[in-house]
Specification:
Strand order of the largest sheet: 2-3-7-1-8
Radius of gyration: 20 Å
Order of helices and strands: HHHHHEHEHEHEEEEHEHH
Number of helices: 11
Strand content: 15-25%
């Protein structure tokens, strides 16, 4: 439950607000509701809940995090949380990325030849054609540097408005229907530091804030200093 709340709500926020939501809102709410269930049942039983419940430990493994770091994702906690959100959400991620750390990681993460990563921008002449090929073959599309609006022709893809006929899935793209391959991946990225998206976009995507704050920069610099000054500790961390 805590991990589900984490995926659904913390993405747009920076580190202090994420900590506040997890420690001051979500955990106390679950503890109150669990206690209420116990009292209503009339049994002396408390719903088990780890005192140090960590959504990252639920959503990923140290091996996954190490691979993300190898693919250029910074090693600070907020970046790791963002990696969990990108990889665990059922909705397409919309990355708020003014420092371009997120897009650098996505490009490296999806660089395998079988992913055939295509990087496009809204308004590009061959956008629809590349999107159609990616949908049918299960490739990856990265739409970079978007503004605060998205073309209506892309909304069926963003909304995952599938149509099932027999065993196949189809999706409407413009005036035609395309096969939908289950391996298809879509990433959206904006350089805007404080975008204001309409409710329909916020509801249909997972907003993930990769903006580097002072606290996040301190964590990243600390990791770089450890790698430089104590490579033995850095290699031990990687081995663990």
């Amino acid at each position: 439950l805590l991990a589900s709340s984490f995926i659904s709500y913390v993405g747009p926020f920076t580190k202090p607000f994420r900590i506040h939501l997890m420690e001051k809102v979500f955990r106390p709410f679950l503890e109150r509701e669990f206690a209420k269930i116990s009292n209503d049942s009339g049994e002396d039983y408390m719903m088990p809940m780890s005192p140090d419940a960590n959504p990252i430990a639920t959503l990923t493994t140290p091996a996954d995090v190490a691979q993300w770091n190898a693919d250029s994702l910074p090693a600070d906690k907020v970046s790791t949380e963002n990696g969990c959100l990108v990889c665990s959400s059922s909705r397409w991620p919309l990355i708020i990325d003014p420092q371009l750390q997120g897009i650098k990681w996505i490009k490296q993460k999806e660089s395998a030849p079988e992913r055939n990563l295509q990087i496009v921008r809204l308004g590009q002449k061959d956008l629809i054609r590349k999107l159609e090929i990616a949908l049918e073959n299960g490739y990856t599309i990265l739409i970079e540097n978007i503004g605060e609006t998205i073309d209506a022709v892309l909304m069926p893809v963003i909304q995952r408005a599938f149509m099932k006929r027999g065993t196949k899935l189809y999706i409407k793209l413009g005036d035609k229907e395309c096969d939908f391959h289950p391996d298809f991946r879509l990433y959206l990225q904006t350089k805007l530091s404080n975008p204001h998206y309409p409710p329909e976009i916020q509801a249909e995507t997972t907003l993930i804030n990769f903006t580097v704050t002072m606290a996040g920069l301190e964590d990243q610099l600390l990791n770089l200093v450890v790698e430089k000054e104590r490579p033995d500790l850095a290699s031990l961390s990687d081995d663990l």
